[in-house]
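Internal ticket - ligand job 266, D-MYO-inositol-1-phosphate:
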Amino acid sequence: MHPMLNIAVRAARSAGTVISRAFEQHDKIEIESKGDNDFVTSVDIKAEQTIIDTIRKSYPKHSIISEECGELKGEDSDYQWVIDPLDGTANFIKGIPHFAVSIALKVKGKLDQAVIYDPIRGELFTASRGQGAQLNNLRVRVKQHKELSGTILATGFPHKQKQHTDAYMGMFKDLFVQTSDMRRAGSAALDLAYVAAGRVDGYFELGLKPWDTAAGELLVIEAGGLVSDLSGGHEHVNSGNIVAACPRLLKVMVKNIRPHLTPSLK
Ligand code: IPD
Ligand code: CA
Ligand code: CA
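stdout (C-alpha cells):
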C-alpha cells in the first residue's frame, strides 16, 4: 500500500472511532447551523482534528483543505489533502447509520490517493492512481450498462439549492421512468463509493463541494467508471454538479439530463 494511502487509512480509521463512539451517545451531540439545511456537529469538528493531526504527524509540510476548517496552506503545495471528516452529517444527527469519512490526496492538482471509510459497517474503500479500487482490500469495479433499463441510480436532492428544484425534478423524472429505481441515501461519498463497488449503477447530484466528491471520484475512475459535470464535461469540481457511472451509461444519463439544464446549471 502506498505510504500516503496508509496514513490516510490510519486517519480515516481514527476519525471513524471518534464518530462511531459519539453515535452511541447520540444525545450528547452538539449541533450548529451553517446555513440553509446545512449543519455541523461537535463530532464533525473532533473527527476533522483527528484526521489533520494524523496527516500532519507524517506530512507536516502538506497542504490541506477540509470542510469545517477550510484551507490550511503548507510549504509543499504540490500535495493537498481534501477532507470531509463526516459525510452524511444530517443522517448522523437524525440517528440514521449511513455516513462516512472521506479523505483524498491530490498531487500537483491530480487525484492520487483516496479513502472512504464507513465506520458503522466497517467498510474501507481505497484507491491509488493507476492501482484500481478496493473494498476491504478486495478489488471492485463499476457495473457495465449501455442503457438505463434495469439500473438503480443513486442521487441527492438539491436541499441546499432549492432554486434548482424544477430542473432537478425534470432530470429525475426522465431518468426514473427508464430506470428500475432510485436511491437517496444521504452521503455523496458513499454514493460514489457504491458506484465504484457496483452496488448502484450510476449517481447524479447538484450542488456538491470538492470534499464531498474528491475521494469518490478517484474510486469511480479506478473502478473503471467516469465522472463528469451535467453536460459530460470536466467542470464538476467547480460547479459541484456531478454524474458518475460506467462510460456508456454516463453518456445515456447526460443525454437525459441535458434538456433540463438551465443557464446556471450549464
Ligand atoms: C452532504 C451529503 C449529502 C449531500 C449534501 C452534502 P455533509 O455532505 O453528502 O448526501 O446531498 O449535498 O453536503 O454536509 O453531510 O458533509
Ligand atoms: Ca459532505
Ligand atoms: Ca461533512
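Auto-summary: The helical segments are 3-24, 42-58, 89-94, 165-176, 188-196, 210-222, 236-239, 247-257. The domain at 152-265 is CATH 3.40.190.80 (D-Maltodextrin-Binding Protein; domain 2).
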